[in-house]
Amino acid sequence: MQDLFSVKGKVAVVTGGGQGIGRMITQGLVEAGAKTYISSRKLDVIEGVAAELSKSGECIPIAADLSTEDGCKRLAAEISKREQKLDILVNNAGNNWGAPFEQFPDNAFDRVFALNVKGVFHTTRNLLPLLEAAATADDPARIVNIGSVDGIKAPFLETYSYSTSKAAVHHLTRVLSRKFAPKHITVNAIAPGPFESKMMHETLQRFGDAIKGQVPLGRIGRPEDMAGAVIFLASRAGSYLTGAVIPVDGGSTTDHV
Fold first, then answer.
1. 184 occurs within a structural domain
2. Is residue 4 domain-resident?
3. pLDDT tens string for the chain (257 positions)?
């Protein structure tokens, strides 16, 4: 039982791993002993994160725009040059858009769905050969998609494309879990509640007390809350779990699941 939650020696990819929830996940995996690749459009950002986290483990930055299929192919090609297998894929890269219903622009759906949904699909498809190479019946390869509580319940703010995209991520998770089970690859999703991140910073500044008031545990999520959930799913402890959407939200969706 001593290594039940171990990911030491595994190879991981975290998309959008340079900030916010992605960085929380990256730091957790690196410090737990996983060789972790992080991607972002902003190479300077992930180079800085990788330099900092490499003091406690292996963290390698690769620039990629995952809102395009070509960008997803490029990321997979770069990983394939360096690795023969991939144990853990965390599809975290995402985008948000908020505007009143009457003014909500059409391209807000195109831009958000391109990264939040199509990016998950194309990244997974292009990295599938490496995941298959790592997968065994006793130790499946793992895919963890980052959804949102806004994909489970109606959101607090007017983020129409974001919330519907995250609901799509949750269902895509279920579909892929059935597809990949025979390949010994598990597919699960985490639906974070409020965490301190770049995407949530302004919202928490303006509505922090109200948001905390909606969380039964009475606080905002901490980095170890997110890292712990991913490490559970990626370790031997989570090897029999697939097709699940796990709210990591302090209980805020208890009336909606």
1. yes
2. no
3. 779 999 999 999 999 999 999 999 999 999 999 999 999 999 999 999 999 999 999 999 999 999 999 999 999 999 999 999 999 999 999 988 878 778 888 888 999 999 999 999 999 999 999 999 999 999 999 999 999 999 999 887 778 799 999 999 999 999 999 999 999 999 999 999 988 766 655 666 665 566 776 788 988 889 999 999 999 999 999 999 999 999 999 998 887 54
Q: What is the CATH number of the domain that holds 142?
A: 3.40.50.720
CB 247 within 8 A of CB 214: no
Q: Is residue 1 part of a domain?
A: no
Overall domain count for the chain: 1
Q: Is 37 a catalytic residue?
A: no
In-domain check, residue 257: no
State the residue range of the domain holding 185: 11-248
**Tokens standing for 50?**
């990788």
Round the CA-based radius of gyration of the chain to a whole number and report it: 17
Q: Which phi-psi region, left, alpha or beta, contains residue 220 (left: φ > 0; alpha: ψ -120 to 50)?
A: beta
